[in-house]
Design goal:
heterodimer; A: mainly alpha; MetI-like fold; 2 domains; B: Rossmann fold; 6-stranded mixed beta sheet; 8 helices; 10 strands; 22% strand; disordered C terminus
Amino acid sequence: MMPALATPHARTRLTEVLERYSSLWVVLIACAVWQAAVATGLLHNPAVPAPGAVLASLYRGMLERGHILLFATLGTVLRLLLGYAIAVVFGGALGILAGRHPDFGAAVNPIVALWIPLPAIVTIPVLSLWIGTGEAVIVLTVIFSAWIPVYLGALQGTRSISVHQLWVMRSYRASAWREMRKVILPGAFVNMIPSLRVGMGYAWRAVIAAEIIVQHGRGLGITIFAARQFFDVPTMYAGVATIALLGLALDHLVFPALERVTIRRWGLAS
Amino acid sequence: MTSANAAPAARDDEGAMTGGASSAPVIQALNLSKVYPGRDGHAPVTAIEDVSFDVRPRKFTVFLGPSGCGKSTTLHMIGGFEQPTGGSLLLKGEPIRGPGPDRGIVFQDFVLFPWRTVLANIAFGLEMLKRFDRAEIKARAERYVEHLGLAGFANAYPATLSGGMKQRVAIARTLATQPEFILMDEPFASLDAQTRDRLIVDLSAIASENDTTFLFVTHDVREAIRLADRIVVFSPRPARIVEFLDITLPRPRDAYGPGVLEVERYLRSLIGKSAES
């Protein structure tokens, strides 16, 4: 911000709007400069189309041309959500078990420690030996990638339930399931949103990478790769833009919304 | 160990009628001890050693002693959360095997479930017990919202409440399931003086209109006098019991009410400065 605008007296509606949407303006200005560079012939490279061309390609890919981008997006999102859901259940269950039973945690932790440095796509060659190259490999890659942060978050979340909370819980001698539902799950969840978010980020990267390598069905990774091969550069960029925008939406809309209806409502968000 | 009734606590008729001494004890500790094993080369820690006492039903018993003397450990063992390493601890003639819904517990650190509203926190125990249907749980919880002076806060979340309010919610949750015993582990120790005063008055009223047996741990002499039917005085660690004292001053007891100061002077002389903190 310009210093002159920093004093409250100098604030106008315009400066407020500028400030509020500052990140959007940065992107728009960058696109405008880029567009101008192409239009004036300053930037002349078939590998770098103008933003306008990318936007047109994005529009046509979504709504015309047999909806190739739309279906690719749907395919990717479905794989992502399926893999992520399984990763949350699996990683969450394992993390809670490890948090509740230190011996189990001690047994699992070395495996997790070995797993953490593995990039998700390393599993693709291995998996394809076992089960061929199909949907399952992509979804499994997503799971293998996303379960780690969820596991670590669930472990930490479960451990953060206070001894006294556990004592109060135990004093009612309820069934293990009831204790799980009424204390352990919500107690772990309270501290888990950041790791759920990181897990989603991992899952999102993994699904695109796996699609590009496995090349099965419809998906953004597949479309981008195919567009490159046909030298349909604008479509390639349209795919990349879709990935960026969807990833941003997942990260900046879904998780803040989840926080609003949970920890923010409970007054626990910092 | 003898009783020091003789000194300040004038026994009144009502006290004699409800018959503290004649009722069979519901909790009996005999030569109770608790030693924590030493960790990382440290020597074992003896929390309490050779402690014997009994608790009479429907009475308000206070464990009074300096900080860290092992009185909380004793309470935790009665709660079934910790196990004695020596002696015997009987609950209605049976050794204590773990916690149970007959013993509700309130801690110093306002143990609530932050994702639940005040009403839902109070309903927590009722839900856990699986003994009541939804409508009854709600009705009971609402009754205790009123009872603890929490009207208007039923739908608030704990994070928005003051310490005193939080502790009221925790007490309401504990009362709601109507346990036979309520164990309170320095419940007012982290509250400011005014809030503590209000809670002492309210708890004293609740206790006197209830058949519940209260066990209350504190290091605050005056708090003990204002609440107790009977005070068990612990020595510094390793805890031994230095005195049993029946308090029969009329209720409600003001902090500066008749007799309180005399009892306080007596207790302080008994346990020395270590009881203050």
